[in-house]
């Protein structure tokens, strides 16, 4: 059933606004003091992943109302549609089946009457076999050399997910080094090539559409570099492979069909790390670990599709995020991984969340009269404590955050991991509790009255700043799979309730078209007809670029 009227016209929406007005002065410090069972009632554990959502401005009533909101938006119905392969990406008339990519072999999912699971298995096995051959030295370079380096050339979803996961799973690294080139800024490719021996390098050209200009330009530049290093066209086959849903476009580009690993149009770029787009990750960690990564995501899918909404990890994360975003008008959401390997997680989640839900038009074309997707941002802990946490603790804005903390580190280094974890937990406690004026006064008892009156208010922490804590037993392939699938479903939960199509991205098209028009104008002398600012900036570039060359 398509929702026929925007969610903000429902009774439950109004009830949640009312509930927000009546509970907004509650302080979490008091909620904890009043209810010793608060953590017990507000956490979920799934395998090696614990979500503690008790440090939020919520009561059990809030959760019940939010669950009713999800029901009013027919969340269950939309989950079923996604799972069974209905074309829920209606603006592109496509199914949305990243969950199918992590199904066991015995499962089946039909798209237009065709079971896609065997196709998925076939392409995954081809990609895993290639990664294995590169790692075990059976795939040699054109001159008979062992491959030592793999370079993924791709951008957006063809970069961020695999890059983040490759960094996160570095302790599971096999033999080859894996590099990522995304930016069309020549520095990205040039600085990568500087480190490489072409005889020992394989390039993966990763592009779902095989039409992304930045990726194709970088791929052409890499090919030119390769040929300039004493290799022939005939050698390209052993050094260039591609991943794409447009196999014909990849072969036209000059990559032999046998070297093209297919992905499918029903997986969105930002949800594609589970497909052949995961090839660099497969090269980095090998088949067994990649399969564990898929198994972790499947475990989260199973939980998501089956657990009651009130105890469903992605649903809770989605609903609590929406509570702040929609009913408190919190514009942003921070993600703070206390794990060096997860340092690119905020970047991956930026694309996942902001490209999915950064929309103000509903899936039926209606204008949505309320705020949707949050600004996702973050940085690895503890570094950010020494940078922007001041604003979280004493700034004027409500900024909900997720703290991601592994229990075991792959690099414990004496007490370093213990110190790291202590910092993470201390931050969530401080954000929640705050420090009252009376407490600040008591701390400054040794000062004279005048100094104390001046300093004490500055040492007050309002607290009541919400956070979720996600504790992983360790950053293993399985747990990382669960974590990423958790966020994918969180985004789906929010998008479904707001009524947006989380799987298209029309908003990235306009800039691409204008860039294509401006690019030749930077080098020619044609009269410009943009606005005065753009005209002047192009003129400035023309003038100074000529000076420099
Ligand atoms: O994989 P590709 O087709 O090259 O696309 C790469 C990226 O660019 C596009 O502009 C989209 O905004 C992204 O969703 C996509 O992941």
TrEMBL record:
Q: Please state what the protein is called.
A: Glucose-6-phosphate isomerase
Tell me the compartments it is located in: Cytoplasm
Task: Give a yes or no for keyword Chaperone in this entry.
Answer: no
Its biological purpose = Catalyzes the reversible isomerization of glucose-6-phosphate to fructose-6-phosphate.
Gene3D superfamilies recorded for this chain? 1.10.1390.10, Glucose-6-phosphate isomerase like protein, domain 1 (3.40.50.10490)
The reactions it catalyses are: alpha-D-glucose 6-phosphate = beta-D-fructose 6-phosphate
* Pfam families linked: PGI
GO BP terms in the entry: gluconeogenesis; glucose 6-phosphate metabolic process; glycolytic process
Family per record: Belongs to the GPI family.
Gene Ontology, cellular component aspect: cytosol
**Key words, A-Z:** Cytoplasm, Gluconeogenesis, Glycolysis, Isomerase
Principal place of residence:
cytoplasm
The answer to whether the entry has keyword Cytoplasm is yes
Q: Which SUPFAM superfamilies match?
A: SIS domain
Name the species this protein comes from: Paralysiella testudinis
Can you tell me which residues form the catalytic site?
Answer: 355, 386, 512
The broad enzyme category this protein falls into is isomerase
Write down the NCBIfam families for this protein, in alphabetical order.
PRK00179.1 (NF001211)
> So where does this one cross the membrane?
none
Q: Mind telling me which InterPro entries this protein's record contains? A: G6P_Isomerase (IPR001672), G6P_Isomerase_C (IPR023096), Phosphoglucose_isomerase_CS (IPR018189), SIS_dom_sf (IPR046348), SIS_PGI_1 (IPR035476), SIS_PGI_2 (IPR035482)
Pathway, per record: Carbohydrate degradation; glycolysis; D-glyceraldehyde 3-phosphate and glycerone phosphate from D-glucose: step 2/4; Carbohydrate biosynthesis; gluconeogenesis
Instruction: Enumerate the GO terms in the molecular function aspect.
Output: carbohydrate derivative binding; glucose-6-phosphate isomerase activity; monosaccharide binding
Protein EC? 5.3.1.9
Top-level taxonomic group: Bacteria
Question: What is this protein's gene name?
Answer: pgi
């Amino acid at each position: 059933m398509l929702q026929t009227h925007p969610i903000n016209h429902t009774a439950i929406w109004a009830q949640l606004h009312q509930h927000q007005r009546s509970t907004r002065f509650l302080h979490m410090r008091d909620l904890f003091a009043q209810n010793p069972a608060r953590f017990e009632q507000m956490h979920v554990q799934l395998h090696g992943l614990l979500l503690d959502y008790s440090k939020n401005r919520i009561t059990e009533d809030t959760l019940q109302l939010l669950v009713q909101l999800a029901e009013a938006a027919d969340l269950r119905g939309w989950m079923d549609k996604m799972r069974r392969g209905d074309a829920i990406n209606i603006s592109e008339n496509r199914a949305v089946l990243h969950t199918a990519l992590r199904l066991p072999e015995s499962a089946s999912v039909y798209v237009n009457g065709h079971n896609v699971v065997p196709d998925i298995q076939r392409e995954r096995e081809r990609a895993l076999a290639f990664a294995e051959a590169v790692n075990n030295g059976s795939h040699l370079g054109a001159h008979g050399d062992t491959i030592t380096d793999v370079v993924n050339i791709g951008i957006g979803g063809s970069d961020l997910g695999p890059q983040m996961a490759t960094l996160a799973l570095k302790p599971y690294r096999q033999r080859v080094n894996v590099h990522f080139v995304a930016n069309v800024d020549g520095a990205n490719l040039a600085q990568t090539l500087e480190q490489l021996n072409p005889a020992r390098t394989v390039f993966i050209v990763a592009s779902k559409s095989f039409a992304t200009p930045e990726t194709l330009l970088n791929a052409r530049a890499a090919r030119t570099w390769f040929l300039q290093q004493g290799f022939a066209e005939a050698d390209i086959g052993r050094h260039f492979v591609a991943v794409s849903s447009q196999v014909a476009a990849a072969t036209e580009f000059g990559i032999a069909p046998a070297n093209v690993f297919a992905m499918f149009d029903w997986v969105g770029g930002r949800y594609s790390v589970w497909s052949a787009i995961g090839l660099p990750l497969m090269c980095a960690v090998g088949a067994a670990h990649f399969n564990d990564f898929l198994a972790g995501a499947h475990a989260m899918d199973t939980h998501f599709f089956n657990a009651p909404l009130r105890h469903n990890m992605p649903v809770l994360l989605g609903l609590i995020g929406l509570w702040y975003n929609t009913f408190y008008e919190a514009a942003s959401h921070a993600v703070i991984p206390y794990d060096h390997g997860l340092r690119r997680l905020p970047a991956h989640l930026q694309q996942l969340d902001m490209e999915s839900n950064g929309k103000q038009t509903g899936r039926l074309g209606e204008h949505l009269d309320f705020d949707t997707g949050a600004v996702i941002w973050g940085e690895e802990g503890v570094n950010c404590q020494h940078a922007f946490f001041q604003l979280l603790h004493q700034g004027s804005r409500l900024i909900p955050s997720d703290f991601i903390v592994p229990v075991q580190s792959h690099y414990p280094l004496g007490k370093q991991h213990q110190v790291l974890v202590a910092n993470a937990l201390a931050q969530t406690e401080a954000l929640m509790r705050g420090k009252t004026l009376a407490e600040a006064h008591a701390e400054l008892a040794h000062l004279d009255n005048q100094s104390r009156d001046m300093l004490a208010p500055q040492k007050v922490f309002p607290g009541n700043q919400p956070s979720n804590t996600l504790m992983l037993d360790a950053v293993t392939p399985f747990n990382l799979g669960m974590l990423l699938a958790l966020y994918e479903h969180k985004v789906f939960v929010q998008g479904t309730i707001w009524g947006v199509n989380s799987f298209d991205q029309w908003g990235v098209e306009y800039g691409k078209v204008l860039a294509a028009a401006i690019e030749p104008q930077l080098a020619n002398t044609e009269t410009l007809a943009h606005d005065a600012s753009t005209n002047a900036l192009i003129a400035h570039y023309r003038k100074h670029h000529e000076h420099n060359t």
